[in-house]
Amino acid sequence: MIVGRCKIVSSLCLGAYLVAIPAYAEIHFGQAVALSVGVVALVMALGLLFVAILIKDVVHNYLISKVNQGIKDYPKYLENLSSRQISLLLDRMVKKGRVGAILLVMLTLLDFPSLAQSSQPTAGSLLSQGGILITIVLISIPVLAGVIFLFFKITNTLNRYRNQQREAEAGRVAAYLDGIEGKDLAATLQRRKDALDFALSHNELSGALPANDHKGLINNVEHEASLPFVARKRKAHVRPKVDPELSRLITWFIITATFWLVFGTTVGEYLGIKFVAPDADQFSWLSFGRLRPVHTNAVFWGWASLAMLGLGNYVVPRVSNTSLFSIKLGWYTLILINTAVVLGTLSLMAGINNGGGEYREYIWPVMLLFGIGLLLTLINYFKTVASRTTKEIYISNWYIVSSVIFGIVISIVAYVPLWQNGLGETIIQGYYMHQGVGMWFMLFTLGIVYYFLPQQLNKPIYSYSLGILAFWTQILFYTLIGTHHFVFSAIPWWLQTVAIVGSVGMIIPVVAGTTNFLLTFKGAWYKITDSYTLPFFLTGILFYFTGSLQGTAEAFRSTNLLWHFTDFTVAHSHLTMYGIICFLLWAGIYALMPRITGQEPPQITVGAHFWLALIGLLFYTIPLMYGSTMRGLMWMEAKPFIDSVSFMAPFWLWRAIGGSLMWLSHLFFAYNLYRMMVAPGTVDIKETAFEKLRSIDRVP
């Protein structure tokens, strides 16, 4: 079943990726649609075939159970019992004192297993536009995902019914085993148990004397019997259970966050295609000016914010050694934020926005819902920390609670329309632009890392003092740097200079934080190969260092003159928001969800998620940074603007390719999240039967 599901998801991902290729290769869009339809039909056909096989198996078991209500071929379960099961059965026979004759057929089945086995439409005006076709393809992806989800629900229902059948079968086998008698059968079972328990002493060839092995060539050799396709990773340690109500709340935060990640990046995938096919559509709701803020706001407020709050609902009470103050407030926050993102997305696509803002395009009544959600979260976290049973407030709560405070301040400053006009709006926008990234996303995520990284390494953070230094210097310098995006603008020269100085000052918290995290790895680097969470943490930490210092480099007037208004800022924003925030959030989710659900994700698909996201990010950012640098030089040399546009075409192609890989990795992540929430498996009739026997013994 697992292999079948992997094949289905792989077919879906491959089909979605192939759909984007015709835009680059200039293949007719009709071929892309035909290819997509073919892939969808193939996936649905495979799904129907699988369901049909499963239904046939369930019906077959049902008919057999009806026909054989009397004497069944239960003796088949005695053919390959384990030593432990035989011991349990013999003990019951001795306790009951059953030494009567056994059926000759039973002895025959035991002595001769071979005998026992032999008894078993036309294109219209809109459809002629490439953008509409691409849109249909992209819309079909979540529809197909819904079909696959329905398929999984059907198979899960059938599996539950089949397991009920097997549970009933196990009960009947247990009753049969409880009633069998026979001295000869007991002797036969004992001989089989002795054979199963026989083991070599492991010194038949070497003797009892120790080997003269002063170089350790024998005693220190590790032998792997098989060569795995992917490196084996350690499973999550069994830890204390999480409150079921809190687990449910956190799970829904992560589920909705993942939905907005897939939705937002699907929109971003389409925007990347439009860079290489700018005339793809003429539909107003799909214009670049409307979809671009849909993409950014969905991943900001939908994906990253919800994922952070979901993890924060676990970390804050955990490091306070208490329970979350109010589960109900958490649900209110979840509903308010999701409502804000839904309403904001619809309003943006309809052309309703707040005008001049670059990132803050949601109108203020929509973001008021988001702000209220943050206020409820702040109350919840404050009350939780106030009821802590530890004397100290761990550094994670310093970061998380302060980020929520700054998030509320940012929402008020950036969205209240009273001062949103003229030059003041420009200054506020610069403030908001960096406060949103550094004081909401970065502070919160660093607080999550300060908990989960030591937990995954099973050692304390290297230096608490370095963490406090990074915390206060980030608050000091990051709140000053927003206007470095408006160097050479009409805002006061001294304010530009303050922003540049603050950007240089950011070297202190970045170096302190990176040093603290990397030195926490000291003596534990070997654990990276055994973990599927630590590579995400390490990648996010390295991007934290490089991406943040790149922001410092961009702040100077000389570099601002070269890079500003080019796609270099686009590459930088993805290097930070994606390379830092997303990778660290994924690491936290992979660390937390197995503890909540008890289910591990498939290691091969976790690896596919990691490498597709990392390679896609590099394909996305490096060509854009190089091409944008050359484009800035062309502008400084007064080359015609259209020449710079033509020059960027191949780099925009790389942008689309990298974005496609990143988007594909998100589908793998969504699948991994599904696997961490759904428990696979089939009831083992024999093992369940003996469990029922043990339960019978426990009943007085």
UniProtKB/TrEMBL annotation:
Keyword Acetylation attributed: no
An individual GO BP term: electron transport coupled proton transport
InterPro entries listed in its UniProt record: Cyt_c_oxase-like_su1_dom, Cyt_c_oxase-like_su1_sf, Cyt_C_Oxase_1
GO molecular-function term, one example from the UniProt record: cytochrome-c oxidase activity
Domain Cytochrome oxidase subunit I profile: 227-700
Keyword field contains Electron transport: yes
Pfam family, one: COX1
Keywords linked to the UniProt accession: Electron transport, Membrane, Respiratory chain, Transmembrane, Transmembrane helix, Transport
Transmembrane segments: 35-55, 99-118, 130-152, 249-273, 298-317, 329-350, 362-382, 394-417, 437-454, 461-481, 493-519, 531-551, 571-592, 604-626, 652-674
Cited SUPFAM superfamilies: Cytochrome c oxidase subunit I-like
GO cellular component, as recorded: membrane
UniProt-recorded name of the protein: Cytochrome c oxidase cbb3-type subunit 1
Species this protein is from: Dyadobacter psychrophilus
